[in-house]
Design brief:
single chain; 133 residues; alpha+beta; three-stranded antiparallel beta sheet; binds zinc ion
């Protein structure tokens, strides 16, 4: 799967949409199936910054960010939705401390920080291991 930042040519709104490939996006767009979620116009195209996939060109800022994140996560374990509980349990000493990453809502992250649990947002959205293509 690939996520594109799309832009409505009528209203100028930008939004994200997922496609199996760039070719599938073009097919669906040409068939008028890709619509602006704001005004339902089918006059949409890729926004200037699309697509958000790593490129060969290592000067792409997004590539450098992705490389940084993969270094951050190299020794980290994906815990998914159990992130908040896991972080709390480690903080209180119930389980052994290790580096983990996973999902937390803004509310959960705030409450962890309020309780002195050190958490930090990741620069890029993480694809859970069970959702990789
Ligand atoms: Zn629109």
């Amino acid at each position: 799967m690939i996520v594109f930042d799309l832009q409505c040519r009528d209203g100028g709104e930008t939004f994200e949409a997922w496609f199996r490939s760039g070719a599938e996006f073009e097919e669906q767009r040409d068939a008028g199936l890709v619509q602006c979620p704001i005004c339902s116009s089918a006059n949409v195209d890729k926004a200037p910054m699309a697509p958000r996939v790593p490129r060969k060109d290592s000067d792409q800022p997004i590539t450098r960010l992705a490389a940084l994140q993969s270094r951050l996560l190299k020794d980290s374990r994906w815990v998914g939705d159990a992130f908040t509980d896991t972080a709390r349990a480690m903080h209180s000493g119930e389980i052994e401390t290790e580096q983990v990453h996973g999902n937390a809502t803004l509310e959960q992250a705030r409450s962890l920080l309020d309780d002195g649990v050190p958490v930090a947002p990741l620069p890029l959205r993480v694809t859970p291991p069970n959702q990789v293509n």
